[in-house]
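Q: You know discrete backbone vocabularies at least as well as I do. I have my own habits and do not want them to colour yours. No explanation is needed for now; the record alone will do.
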Amino acid sequence: MASDKLKNLLNPSNGGELADIVRRAREMGELTHVLSKGLPGEYAGAIVAANLREDGDLIIIAASSAWASRLRYETDVLLATARDAGLSPTACRIRVTQS
């Protein structure tokens, strides 16, 4: 019974704030996947998360400072990949995860 209530809470088609959070998390996950696939194979696992802000900033969260350094050289590729996916980023910012 409690699991049914949880499913209803997490179902993005029900509307509401929690549904918006779930929808946004899915969109960010899809963006992360698309951007990761646009990079060379040796970059697998370099991107932890990605987000496109309303101001056009493409924010990439790197797995480590070493990956962040390498990803900064790939900003043109990341921007092009996002544009190929139908988005309109204006800048790319690389950050390091806070783990």
Observations:
- The radius of gyration is 16 Å.
